[in-house]
Amino acid sequence: MDLLSLPSLTVLSDCVTIVEQDNVKIVRVIHDKAVAGIALHGGHVVSFQPTGQEDLLWMSKKAIFDGKTALRGGIPVCWPWFGRLAAPAHGFARSSQWQLIEHRENEQGVIVVLGLDSNQQTRSVWQHEFQLRLSIEISDSLTVRLAITNTDQKAWAFSGALHSYLNVADVRETTITGMGSDYIDSLQNDQWCQGGETLTLHDSIDRVYTKPQSHIQVQDHQRQRTLVVENQGHNSAVLWNPWARGAQSMGDMQDDGYLTMLCVESTWHAPSIAAGKVLPPGETHYLITRITA
Asked: Distance between CA atoms of 56 and 162, rounded to whole angstroms?
């Protein structure tokens, strides 16, 4: 998406403005280090383009900006569950309206903080009290930090992911390392598998890597750059690409969209909501991803 072409609705500072794509308001950051966009719908990072580089994030050309549908691409916030453990799939955070809490800037970059608290709408889906704070640090690299706080009187369990879609020139000409060898294959009925330490894609993939290294590298050979994804607060890393058949089945992805994207996700994976990470009252858990070229 072309953030620079969108007219400003509100000017918040020298670097931060509010713009709108169809029915979705976006916090636009224009800084010497990078240009970025964060949609208030879903608390969703839609773009991060370091100065002089291609965007590090992939957005579908057919993403639906109606303020209701979860956006396809960027970094969706999947919470309080990941996958199809309940409805809606991947939880409600990615289709909820977040609030702009604060923004700060200096010569090193910009920090934008969004918030989502439990409310009547969230309780109709998930009957727990919570506070989410999403901190997005925009500099030479992109750091997304989801702070999950239990504001309830009792413990509850969750799973989730920062579902990063990386932008590559041609996914068939990428090499992935650092994800480890042990994985659960969602395309083989959650079978436990073991693979090599290096991965090149030739078909669809939907894997939960259970022993990833702290840094996963995606070598984008055509662009002669390596995308480095550093995750914290996770118990696994998910790699996903729907390939041609999957892309054609999605109304919000162009048929050839799979060729230029690869998801590498910071994930707290669980087979059910009850089996998720237990968070006692008053405690906070951080799920973090940092993406660098």
From this structure: 15
